Amino acid sequence: MAFPRRARRLWDYWRAEKRTLGQGFVALIVSTAASFVAGITLGSITHTLEALPGLVILIPAAVGMRGTIFGSMGARLGTSAHAGLLDVTRDRSGVLKQNISVAVALTFGSSLYLAALAKLAAAAFGLASISFWDFVTISVVGGVLSSAFILFATIGLAVVSTRREYDLDSVATPLVSAVGDMVTLPMLFLATFLLRFSILNSIVAAACVVAGLFAIRAGLRTQVAQVRRILIEMTAVVILTPMLDIAAGLVLQARLDKIAVIPGLLIIVPPFVSQAGALGGILSSRLTSKLQLGVVSPRGLPGAPALIDASLVLGLGATAFTLIGATGLGLSYLLNQAHPAAASMIGGTFVAGMLATAVAIVVGYYLAILTTRFGLDPDNHGVPIVTSLMDLTGILCILLVLPIYGVANG
After folding, report:
1. Which of 181, 218, 153, 246 is nearest to 39 (CA)?
2. Are the beta carbons of 118 and 139 closer than 8 angstroms?
């Protein structure tokens, strides 16, 4: 009789959370659709990836960094909203203004860092690549342009969620990730056009280096204690998590010759990776808020509230990855791109997605617990780490099921 009672409790919770669940489903559907902009872009620029060797190494890191910066910003705003501290004001000491300052400093500094990391990774593995200055131009210009869009979207989302009493924890991560995917890859591609003019490229690259160093210095010397605290706490995250994204880029580069012959698979890569990270981010954000409010205890084995939230994420994942497979198949038909058979496309994406969701749930829970136990702010670590880890895990899950897609894996 224990199982029926637990099933009843789960059903009662889902009914009680139907408004939040509905918001999460809508956010995932919208974010999945938006992420396909990046997928279509990636499937359409194979010639650019071949002409600019090493660019594919930078792409997951650049896209992932938007999730790191603005996903954590959304998580912090979500926690502030639950605590009644989120006021839409231009006051320098206000939560919103503080987070804007953090986002600007991290955008310039991290973009410069990613350029150096991508170049070093290519050199370390003996891969041909564009110059460091080319990486700087693409990473900083593309990163700043995309971040401007994402910043306005995050602020708008926080304002609307506060006024309409939406659960920001359930909608922020997927929607911010989607906007990041939708604009980052096209902006990186747009920045590659600067490489055609060598003198202009040199001037822009030098200016980007100066701007990046100035942003780092200004951020660390700020007189606003909360801004400085967030930047210091996120320094390790910004330095370490891109290594996972760079690893994802290296893995993708190594298998690019196999995947590129079926561009339909490239179409699903950005939305797949984005939603894997978004699902982990949703769980991490919800647990973070509940940990800080005392609803969830930082235990080694998850209690009932955490397990119920995990079941919610599992349901969202099943829906999201089925949708990704079906949409990817439809877009492949419309764009006349080579693709796996219908059953293979949808089935392979679902299997890979469920594997990724399982990892996202485990990682999302224990990151929230460990950061709390070590006295760190989970909002500054949980979402950034889980989204970056899921970038690599998502790529690996897709590669793992390549035989289902009809691609030789070897």
Report:
1. 181
2. yes
By CB atoms closer than 10 A (0-12, 13-18, 19+), residue 267 is buried
Asked if residues 381 and 281 have their Cβ atoms less than 8 Å apart, the reply is: no
Q: What percentage of residues in the chain have a pLDDT greater than 90?
A: 17
Which H or E element spans position 162?
helix 142-164
Closest CA to 313 of 277, 349, 289: 277
* Residue 250 host element (H or E): helix 225-259
Q: What is the mean pLDDT of residues 38-50?
A: 73
Query: Which residue's structure tokens are 């890191």?
Result: 61
Q: What is the pTM of this model?
A: 0.69
Match 């939708």 to its residue by tokens.
182
User: What distance in Å separates the CA atoms of residue 79 and residue 97, rounded to the nearest whole number?
Assistant: 16
Cα(28)–Cα(30) distance, integer angstroms? 5
Q: What is the average pLDDT across 156-166?
A: 72
Name residue 90's amino acid. R
Of 154, 379, 180, nearest to 281 by C-alpha is 379
Q: What is the DSSP letter of 192?
A: G
What is the distance between the alpha carbons of residues 78 and 74, in angstroms, rounded to a whole number? 6
pLDDT in tens, 383-405: 677 877 887 888 888 888 877 88
How many Cβ atoms sit within 10 Å of the Cβ of residue 78?
27
Contact 170, 72 (CB under 8 A): no
The pLDDT tens digits for 92-141 are 556 778 888 888 889 999 999 999 999 998 888 888 889 999 999 999 99
> Are 270 and 35 in contact, with CB atoms under 8 Å apart?
yes
The Cα 154–Cα 111 span in angstroms is 19
**Which band of pLDDT confidence, cut at 50, 70 and 90, is reported for residue 174?**
low
Closest CA to 401 of 347, 362, 330: 347
Cα 117 to Cα 135, 159, 220, 225, 388: the distances in Å are 10, 35, 21, 29, 15
Cα gap 167→86, rounded to integer Å: 13
Given this model, what pLDDT does residue 233 score? Answer: 78
Q: What is the pLDDT of residue 137?
A: 95
Distance CA 232, CA 310 (A): 30
121: exposed, middle or buried (C-beta count within 10 Å: 0-12, 13-18, 19+)? buried
